[in-house]
Amino acid sequence: MNILHIATECHPRLSESASKKLQTEYVSIRQNMRQQANETGEAATIPITVRQLEAVIRLSEALAKMRLSHVATDEHVKEAIRLFNVSTMDAARSGVNQQINLTPEMANEIKQAEVQIKRRVGIGSHISERRLIDELARMGMNDSIVRRALLIMHQRDEVEYKRERRVIVRKV
């Protein structure tokens, strides 16, 4: 078989079981991203969209085509999802996008917010997240900067969230 024949004659489609597997994975990824967003208090960094789902389908079909198969199987879907996770979801989970997009000014604002948070909340003390954000906003700080500072402090285990993220407890 030559490449031209493959390009023109081989158009793989998802098998029924591969389609179900993809549907299950899509729902699972969406749930995981929603859970992560709830834990961090920010929107999911890179939610899987219908467009991304379509890309995973096309990737599954392309993997089948590489093997000269007219049907994209569970194995093709599994590999396409693995590739998607390695590229897109790892970036979302690690917050890489957030760190890449930080300008020096934003990094400085976040540091200033951290200083104000530490001044406002003593070690072992607690405060409502909403109240803290409001107080720092009255000082001229942007809500999203304060939230990002809290997230960073939480990742460093300097603050802890209680009562469904409504209360912040300073640990260090």
UniProtKB/TrEMBL annotation:
<dbReference type="GO" id="GO:0003688">
    <property type="term" value="F:DNA replication origin binding"/>
</dbReference>
<keyword id="KW-0547">Nucleotide-binding</keyword>
<dbReference type="GO" id="GO:0000727">
    <property type="term" value="P:double-strand break repair via break-induced replication"/>
</dbReference>
<comment type="subunit">
    <text>Component of the MCM2-7 complex.</text>
</comment>
<dbReference type="InterPro" id="IPR031327">
    <property type="entry name" value="MCM"/>
</dbReference>
<dbReference type="GO" id="GO:0016787">
    <property type="term" value="F:hydrolase activity"/>
</dbReference>
<dbReference type="GO" id="GO:0017116">
    <property type="term" value="F:single-stranded DNA helicase activity"/>
</dbReference>
<dbReference type="GO" id="GO:0003697">
    <property type="term" value="F:single-stranded DNA binding"/>
</dbReference>
<comment type="similarity">
    <text>Belongs to the MCM family.</text>
</comment>
<keyword id="KW-0539">Nucleus</keyword>
<dbReference type="GO" id="GO:0006270">
    <property type="term" value="P:DNA replication initiation"/>
</dbReference>
<keyword id="KW-0131">Cell cycle</keyword>
<comment type="function">
    <text>Acts as component of the MCM2-7 complex (MCM complex) which is the replicative helicase essential for 'once per cell cycle' DNA replication initiation and elongation in eukaryotic cells. The active ATPase sites in the MCM2-7 ring are formed through the interaction surfaces of two neighboring subunits such that a critical structure of a conserved arginine finger motif is provided in trans relative to the ATP-binding site of the Walker A box of the adjacent subunit. The six ATPase active sites, however, are likely to contribute differentially to the complex helicase activity.</text>
</comment>
<keyword id="KW-0067">ATP-binding</keyword>
<dbReference type="GO" id="GO:0005634">
    <property type="term" value="C:nucleus"/>
</dbReference>
<dbReference type="InterPro" id="IPR027417">
    <property type="entry name" value="P-loop_NTPase"/>
</dbReference>
<feature type="domain" description="MCM AAA-lid">
    <location>
        <begin position="5"/>
        <end position="87"/>
    </location>
</feature>
<dbReference type="InterPro" id="IPR008048">
    <property type="entry name" value="MCM5"/>
</dbReference>
<keyword id="KW-0235">DNA replication</keyword>
<protein>
    <recommendedName>
        <fullName>DNA replication licensing factor MCM5</fullName>
        <ecNumber>3.6.4.12</ecNumber>
    </recommendedName>
</protein>
<dbReference type="GO" id="GO:0042555">
    <property type="term" value="C:MCM complex"/>
</dbReference>
<dbReference type="Pfam" id="PF21933">
    <property type="entry name" value="MCM5_C"/>
</dbReference>
<keyword id="KW-0347">Helicase</keyword>
<dbReference type="Pfam" id="PF17855">
    <property type="entry name" value="MCM_lid"/>
</dbReference>
<dbReference type="InterPro" id="IPR041562">
    <property type="entry name" value="MCM_lid"/>
</dbReference>
<dbReference type="InterPro" id="IPR054125">
    <property type="entry name" value="MCM5_C"/>
</dbReference>
<keyword id="KW-0378">Hydrolase</keyword>
<dbReference type="GO" id="GO:0043138">
    <property type="term" value="F:3'-5' DNA helicase activity"/>
</dbReference>
<dbReference type="GO" id="GO:0005524">
    <property type="term" value="F:ATP binding"/>
</dbReference>
<feature type="domain" description="MCM5 C-terminal">
    <location>
        <begin position="112"/>
        <end position="170"/>
    </location>
</feature>
<keyword id="KW-0238">DNA-binding</keyword>
